[in-house]
Design brief:
The chain is mainly beta. Helices cover 0% and strands 45% of the residues. Strands 4-3-11-12 form a four-stranded antiparallel beta sheet, with no helix packed on it. Strands 7-8-9-10 form a four-stranded antiparallel beta sheet, with no helix packed on it.
């Protein structure tokens, strides 16, 4: 199977095809905001983002910048990442809105990802709105990776139908 043609980034843009594999963890001072059912559940400019070839960035938010009262550990979901380790999940309930497996976190990440211990990443497709520096995020197709797409990120992006073999 051949890879789709890389989109050439314009000034101020990043191509996910320039991201490394294995993935890189980097600090981000971009303002990250998540809204569910009219409530801002996350607001932070002290996050990390994970950058991996063919994937839009995933933002990890410190618990101190979350309204953790809306999160409850999910008992039905766990997954394993070859780079970060075993992930646990949170269900999210904001007033009458319930979202199962809305976010994930690592209680014992691998050494390279130790800084994101207990930080939380959210699936933008499951939230009412996610923002990066005030820009509304488009969710990565497929929800397997949970990437956040903004106008400064170009693909094509892995995750949609037919992209598993890339």
């Amino acid at each position: 199977m051949t890879h789709p043609q890389r989109i050439e980034p314009q000034p101020g843009q990043e191509s996910v095809w320039d991201y490394p594999r294995p993935p890189r963890l980097e600090r981000s001072s971009q303002q990250i905001k998540i809204v569910v059912n009219g409530v801002t559940i996350a607001d932070s400019s002290n996050t990390y983002r994970v950058l991996e070839t063919s994937h839009p960035p995933v933002y990890y938010i410190p618990p101190a910048d979350l309204k953790t009262e809306y999160l409850k550990p999910a008992t039905s979901q766990r997954s394993f990442c070859e780079w970060k380790g075993m992930a646990s999940y949170y269900d999210l309930t904001v007033e009458d809105k319930y979202i199962g497996n809305a976010a994930w976190y690592y209680t014992q990440p691998t050494e390279n990802f130790a800084p994101i211990k207990d930080y939380v990443a959210f699936y933008p497709s499951k939230m009412d709105a996610c923002y990066v520096d005030g820009e509304l995020v488009k969710a990565q197709v497929g929800d397997f990776y949970g990437g956040w797409i903004t106008s400064n990120i170009v693909g094509p992006f892995k995750g949609g139908a037919g992209s598993w073999g890339w």
